[in-house]
Amino acid sequence: MSVRTEEPTKTMSPEAIEQDALDHVWIHQAPWSDIAENEGMRVFSRGKGTTLWDVRGREYLDGISGLWVVNAGHGREEIGRVMGEQAGKLAYASAMSFTTEPAVELAHKLAEIAPGDLSRVYFSSGGSEAVETALKIAKQVQAMRGFPRRYKIIARRGSYHGMTHGAMSLTAARNENYFGPFMYGVSYVPHPNQYRSDFGLEGEEADVMAARYVEQEIENQGPETVAAVIGEPISSAAGVHVPSKKYWQMLREICDRHGVLLIADEVINGFGRTGTMFATEQFDFQPDILTIAKGLTSGYAPMGATIVSPKVFESFKDQKAVAMGHLLTFGGHPVCAVAALKNLEIFEEENLVARGAEMGVYLTQRLEELRAHPTVGDVRGVGLLQAIELVQSKSKKSKWGKEHPFAKRVSELLMERGFITRTWEVMHFAPPLVVTREEIDRMVTIADEALTIAEKEHAKELED
Ligand SMILES: Cc1ncc(COP(=O)(O)O)c(C=O)c1O
Q: I want to staple 192 with a disulfide (CB 3.0 to 4.6 A). Which of 210, 262, 363, 460 is the partner?
């Protein structure tokens, strides 16, 4: 144990807090050396709406809602108040055999707002757990229906579904060198991508081919071995691709025809992010299993859920003494449940879904202006889930490539100007649903400036 040289946080200097963070906090993704040697550690202390402040008092625009999380915006004291009250009343009851009043109320509410007849809720502590739960439900239900050999899962290449072992098996960022072998029986199909189609097609035709590919994969694997297909209705971390309605309608029909369950991962898409409460609504289809997290509590408490239709739950009702082979100690935690309930109350009172949709239309308009840049190949997205794709050549749609410093340089320039987002092949724009027009204007102005500077610095490498 190290000895503190200064009093705890409140009286420590910002520099000392940052040093303490460098010494003891394991930052999840950024390599330690990048933070320690180049970028510096940023420790946040306060937030309100779309704005964040760090311990040095520097102000930032949160252009990605934390990580597509804080849909209701930062600094909602009313959510904190109900959490405190609930903790004083009842902080925990076993999730193994019991539940609590807030969890019941939340499950009821989710059954009301979830697409179609999705109405049975398995609570967890986040998105990865929600995905793990979905995978296990799919496999166990197939076995209980008399198909024990249906264990395979089909995912889309480039997707992100979480970092626990099963979820990571479905995820592009899985690292075989450290963690392989991954879950057996996962195969990948192309993502719907109208900008750079794997099939050299455009528009809806590209999506139709991507859907046909799913069917081909089911047939190649042998339909009698496939448990489920999983995908985000609109890809998020994978580059924000909005498929045509036909894609999801075809997938629904293909899955039904082959007895395969369809899992929609709305961990990011859900709770107004795409301009509707759930993105599936925009494609007129109902998945068998839906995963949610993030916006469920707007980040005020860690919570996820997996919601299934009565038809999926039927097997557990019909077969005596059979439960899911699954247990999460904190599933349905009452303090998290009241945070989710209050969050959803705020959504209703402030009409946040409609507000997000309206701001999304404005954001699209403003982002379209960035197309004038030689490196902005595409502008896409819906609601407040949007992105611009950064390319080296517009005509060839060529990528800068992972090793090239262009995207990193743009990130630095954005950060120096107080705009937080994620920039890699694409630059994400996903502020809280409470974002104002003026804040959108500032984000776009900063992005414009950062691109202009980085393009000048790399002018010789621009291909057209
Ligand atoms: C689509 C999707 N599913 C699942 C997850 C995993 O969620 P968590 O990080 O809460 O475990 C994420 C996280 O970003 C996600 O984007």
A: 210
Q: Which of 232, 268, 298 to mutate to test the pocket of ligand 1 (most atoms within 8 A of CB)?
A: 268
**What tens digit of pLDDT does each residue of 265-311 get?**
999 999 999 999 999 999 999 999 999 999 999 999 999 999 999 99
295 Cβ below 6 A of ligand 1: no
Q: Whose CA is nearest to atom 8 of ligand 1?
A: 127
Task: Tell whether ligand 1 has an atom less than 6 A from the beta carbon of residue 430.
Answer: no
CA distance 86 to 229: 38
Contacts of 318 (CB under 8 A, 6+ apart): none
Tell me if the pTM is above 0.90: yes
Report how far Cα 109 is from the mean position of its chain's Cα atoms. 21
Find out whether the beta carbon of 141 lies less than 6 Å from any atom of ligand 1: no
* pLDDT confidence of residue 359: 98
**In testing the pocket of ligand 1, which one of 29, 128, 240, 290 has its CB within 8 Å of the most ligand atoms?**
128
- What domains does the chain contain, in order, with CATH numbers? 42-75+352-461 (3.90.1150.10), 78-349 (3.40.640.10)
The pLDDT, as a whole number, for residue 354 is 98
Looking from the CA of 366 toward its CB, the CA atoms found within 13 Å total: 23
Q: pLDDT tens digit string along 365-374?
A: 999 999 999 9
Residue 227 to residues 34, 146, 188: CA-CA distances in angstroms? 41, 12, 14
The ligand 1 atom at the shortest distance from the C-alpha of residue 68 is 14
128 Cβ below 6 A of ligand 1? yes
Helix (H, G, I), strand (E, B), or coil: what is residue 274?
Answer: coil
Residues contacting residue 231 through CB under 8 Å, at least 6 positions apart: 155, 156, 159, 251, 263, 264, 265
Query: Ligand 1 centre and the CA of 162: distance in Å?
Result: 5
- Beta strand ranges found along 394-439 (DSSP E): 398-399, 419-420, 426-429
pLDDT for 198: 87
Q: Is the peptide bond before 243 cis (omega within 30 degrees of 0)?
A: no
- The enclosing H or E element of 413 equals helix 406-416
Give CA–CA dist 157/235, Å, rounded. Answer: 11
